[in-house]
Amino acid sequence: MEYLFGVGFLGTRAPYYMDGIIVFLLSLPFLILFSIMLAGNGKYRLHRFTQTLLFISTLLILIAFNYGIHVYENFDELVAMGSVDYTQTFYLLVAQTILSMVMLIMWFSTLLFAISDRRRRALPGLYSSGHKKTGRKVFLAVILTMMTNVYLYWIFYIS
Fold this sequence. Notes:
This protein is mostly helical and 159 residues long.
């Protein structure tokens, strides 16, 4: 267990678990695009499985990221080690937390609506265009969440 909290593999001041979180978050848009390509090729069952797995993984990763910053490591010490001032970092952290929650709610509701639409045999089919539209919004929210998390990582462990 000590290994997770030791120096990470990216060559920064970050612990090992935080490096793993950042690698996952950086690869998340590509994993989502792969899952979308599965749906485009008619592999809907695999698309459902990968979207559910990615949602659960992202939820756990974001909990671990916020736990690491808020509980495991001292926020004040992390800010003091970086070159960005406390107020800007605090507001960015608040924005990241709100954005993460909104993104997770959007993604979860998209999954729930997709399940109910599939049971009514309207997906794929009647509601496919609406599902694609909400999926694009979720993807944009995922990109913004990933960018804010990477920026916080940079503030805390690189700058």
